Amino acid sequence: MSEDIQTVTVFINGEQAEVPAGSNLVDALESVGKEIPHYCYHPKLSVSGNCRMCLVEMGTPGRDRATGEPILDDDGSPKIMWVPKPVIGCATNVSPGMHIRTESDQVKSCREGVMEFLLVNHPLDCPICDQAGECRLQEFATDYGRGYSRFIEQKNVKPKRTRLGPRVTLDDERCILCSRCIRFCEEIADDPVLGFIDRGSFSTLTTFPGVELANNYSLNTVDICPVGALTSTDFRFRMRVWFLKETPSIDTESSVGCNTVVSSREGKIYRITPRRNDLVNDCWMPDSGRILYKEVDSDNRLVQYAIEGRPAKASEAISVAAGKLLEDGGVAIVASGRLSVEEQYLIKRVREQISGVVPTYLVGRHAEGDGKLLSADRNPNVRGALLTGLIDSIPDTELSELTSLISEGSIKTILTVGEDITESGIHVDLLKKVSLVYMGSHHNECSQYAAVELPLLTVFEKSGTFVNQQFRVQKFSQAIPGPGSVLQGLANLTGLLEKLDPSFSMEPTPAAVWEEMAGNVPEFAGMSYDEIPGTGLVVKDERFAGLAFVETKGMHFEPKNALAEA
Amino acid sequence: MNSVNKSTEVHPDERRIILKHADSSDYDVSINCYKKHGGYEVMKKAYASSKPKELCQEVMASEIRGRGGAGFPAGMKWKFLDRKSGKPIYLICNADESEPGTFKDRQIIHKDPHQLIEGMMITAYAIKAAQAFIYIREEMPLGAQILNEAIEEARNENLVGDNILGSGYSCELIVHRGAAAYICGEETGLIESIEGKRAYPRIKPPYFPAALGLYMCPTIVNNVETLCNVKHIVEMGGKEYARIGTPGNTGTRIWCLSGHVRNPGYFELENGNFTYGDLIYKFGGGLREGRTLQALIPGGSSSKVWRAGERFTGNLRSGESFDWGLEDIPLDFDGPMAAGSMSGSGAVIIVDDSVDIVEVLANINAFYAHESCGQCTPCREGSLWMKKITTRMANGGAREEDADLLASIGEQIAGRTVCAHGEACAWPTQSFVAKFRDKFIEKAKEDPEKAKNRKFRLI
Amino acid sequence: MAFDLSSATLSYIDEIIPKYPQKRSAIMMILHAIQKEKGLLSLEAQEWVAHKLEIQPIQVREVVTFYPFYRERPIGKRHIRVCRTLSCALNGGYKVCDSFKKHFDTELDEISPDGRVTVEFAECLASCGTAPVAMVDDVLYENLTEEEVAAICEQIKQETPASSNPESES
Fold it and tell me: Closest to B385 (Cβ–Cβ): which among A91, A120, A203?
């Protein structure tokens, strides 16, 4: 726990503990590694208090009503006035000297009772339920349940396989009516389309007929559904979750840099879900970022090194590429805001090996921010390019200067990394005038005209860092191996550098790049790749105070440069 | 629309304060009639010469306990009101009279609506309410109409609305109609309902109405009978009012007697002066020909049942010991509590030996399962489960182990829910099984065919 | 299809909304008014209310389906609600209900074949002292006996013309 958090002393099952002041019992106990089981409570949503799973016993030191003096026991310790009924941990805040019992017979009985009640009308269809393996009902039934059922009546019948929207499917019989999804839609997504109809045990989660749960955050309801009621239509029935390997990653959709978990098995990705980071994206991410893994296996994936359209060995292709860059006649570089900090740094190092002025561009991607977790800058890593010195201004969406330079004949060779420059204003007729070295993960219009093609890894196949709109350096890790034919890690770029500068030598890993960057990039001084924490590390942004960043207000983000905007 | 039947005769031992005029043949719901009988004089005097604080003190001094069911001291409730928040204060009259067995507020609303309005407008002035509401259940459409007309009459005489009686104080009063949800009798459920939502009771803490009520503003919710009493408390003074009844059980109460009794009806009685035996035999005329008492539900169907022949022993709060038969239990707040139950809404239901006690519980369980709002787990699932079990038992499918199962389910609900509906649905089951365990066990031996073909059903 | 309300209902709705400190509070009163005019609360009606109160349609439907006295399905011309709860049941409430059903040859919660009535159970009507009771539309009938039920049914039949019930024919 960091030192600036105020704490209070409480007693958990008689044991003294320091917990954050003002926190509720669920969070307070979690902070010291103790669990209060719960369903409806979610740290990022309003407290509803309906599941009753978090009932605990609670008492506070007694005070004499008249004098206000503490009441003491015979042994001089404060007399604890226990609340006669169990209280819900989610709606009870800690106070100094509070006693909490989480293991008493009464608490056990409360949990057994709630577990039994939640299961009486539950279909118990775990064998075919997608939630199996990450289901709170399963977990808590094991940990806190009675272990057998006393229910012999008919179960309630409710709708199954309801399409709530394009991406979410609902099984109402599994729903425990915790209302997390309803609260999420109201409080976070600003799209209150979910609600309960009917009453009592027959209450049913639904949308209004004809209205869909279609907002770009809809899949978060699936993530926070503690049971198998809300399922992702994309992921449904595709994989048992316990086979999935989880890798921390970053959503590349925008400069927000939502923290994510990429779930894969045997080199194949099955889903992307948000990873909690209270300073960036809380527990959420946009739906649009969850399908990006599909680029890994897309039909236009570039996996073959090629020279003038003919397959070539990697080393050959890299040699030829280096040769092109060293030719006389003007070289320009187009890099990408989607590349990692490490790649951007190495591209800058490539530029340093080329004589003369090398105009260098990034392709800007601007769209309206949604005020939440999609910023106006749809590149995840423009700030990395600024920090590493690859560029020194906010990139434009069109490469109009480069167009002029090619037209007037002052550029003969273009190195483009991770961008299809035909999409940013470079007409194919112009491409025919230059020699193009293309590095990228996919075939596209521009790669067709490349003299040399060097395949790159997708974000899921490599490790590295991005710098988000907060100037937060965030790590992502390799979830799956890249195609066997593609050089792993940063080897395309380190290989190119070796060809350009025979004295150059570096392991093709982020850690190695960081070792060098720490000495060359002032903001990175003292940092190392391995020590960047899971929640990221904010670096200084003073050097860029004059730049007109395009982001507007979003979750956990206030733009600093209102002046530049105006 | 038809008129409301007047009770033909008032028992001489009643002490009618609230229902003083209600059943007089020459008394009607018009403001003129009300005024002819001294109506609105107390309010006029209070507005002219009392400070709100003084009125609150009178109510505190009266020691009146709420007549809705919980019996919480009304003066205390008002005292908890958050007056420092700067937010508007709201007054709500709970006329969602829904506890099975209760029909007292119906009498007031249909026969003496202006008394309620006067009580409310005094209360509104005392707590400085910005607006007042009457939440009336939709099962009383005539009552809503009568109240609306009465409010219009009162508004025409400047007793409701802007600058009331020239006092500078303004308060609107509107009638809000429910739509047949028992849970709206729970004050925070009622508040949610007025806010235009499903009547999901709120968690307390933090949402105590006195601080975070309607629109998250300080709010007082009082029962119809309680608010009518305010008028009489202010009229006679709190101390004087407190002399009616017994300490801690001040004033009169309107008891509602129903079920298997010769003369069901309502009786306004001074608290503590009578017993449950008096209510059954003296006021209710006793049981029907050839029938004996089987059970008595003392305070609305959610209160814990008593079995005929039970003895109740223990010590009163005063320290005095007691040894009561069911008939000896005092008709007040504390007596039924001492006997392990409660006076609740003052609704007494008599069950004679003509019916199967398991079926009685099945009927009650069907009610509470139907009325569970469904918000919190134990009540939502437990109430329906208990209904399913007792319905199965009533229909010839009883098992010996059902008694223990029912008792255990009840235990898993009471005290663990968002609101008191948990207790309301659990207490009947817990008490019926405890008191009539033999009958619940015997039920397993019943011939299923006989159960299925029974002529008289309660479920 | 456009949803239309009579001018009387519309002006009632416009009067009732400003009586509440917050618009959404008027929903129950508006629903009552529309149900009175239309006989039920269709999805179109609910969308209209949502638009009127600037809330989501699901927030209207949450309310409509929570409170038993609102309905989304049509009922017979007259609405018979027999109290089911304890004091009435102890005094023959179930028999009263059966009797109403028999007189109109109908089942619970359905439109009778002659289209005249829908018989339902209601939970406690708060008139336990005069059990058993039933409401026919807005009128409460107390201390019901077989004979009185017969008389009420006869009266309904006289006042209310029969019509075919599309639901029972299909």
Answer: A120
